Amino acid sequence: MFWMEICAAGRWPGAAAAMFLLLLLPAAPANAACDGNKRVDHRNAECLDAWWDNRGVLRKNRYRVQNMCADYGKVVAKVDLKSARDRTLHLTNGNRRYGRTLHAIRGVSCCADLGNLCNRSDVVTNDTCRRRFLASPAASYCIPRSITAKASISGENYRCMLSARCSNSPAARIGPTTSPP
CA nearest 141: which of 124, 164, 112, 166? Predict the structure, then answer.
């Protein structure tokens, strides 16, 4: 019995040391994300539509956020609360998301480092145009190495111009063929 008490007592200092070490470890990167220059004000983020209403003391304040560019990827919205931890919403589709809080809302921002985009110009590039085409069913009709893409932005128009060698069916052989003798 005395031996068990010594063994149990020997475990406690080790557990306490482990807890102390855990407290010294830095916070996870996800907790520190979307700080400072990584936040884009909702008025400067064309892909984030945001609205909020601070209704006063002891009344629930309301907010609404929406991904306006769901076809291009995920938008991450950060609701900045005055006296509480901010709320982070991952918007993967175009549906509106509503919320309420007792804390005053200072503003809503788009997180450039957590989501795919805040503005369409963030994702309309030559590489993303090519990758979107390769993910489409039409890509099976073309030779992958022959596909080139050029992104262009003109005002509100975002375009992907593609060039590729393609056939009428995915199983068809593209390129020079020789007929049997």
Answer: 166
Q: What is the C-alpha separation between 73 and 6, in angstroms, rounded?
A: 58
In whole angstroms, give the CA distance from residue 90 to residue 133. Answer: 25
Q: Strands, DSSP E only, in the chain?
A: 39-41, 48-53, 61-67, 75-81, 87-91, 96-101, 105-111, 148-154, 157-163
Q: In the chain, what are the domain boundaries?
A: 33-111, 124-163
- 7-51 pLDDT, tens digit per residue, is 445 555 554 444 444 444 444 344 447 887 889 999 999 999 999
Q: Would you give the distance in Å from CA 118 to the centre of its chain?
A: 9
Angle at 120 between CA 33 and CA 116, to 5 degrees: 30
pTM: 0.61
Half-sphere exposure of 83 toward its Cβ, with a 13 Å CA cutoff?
Answer: 5
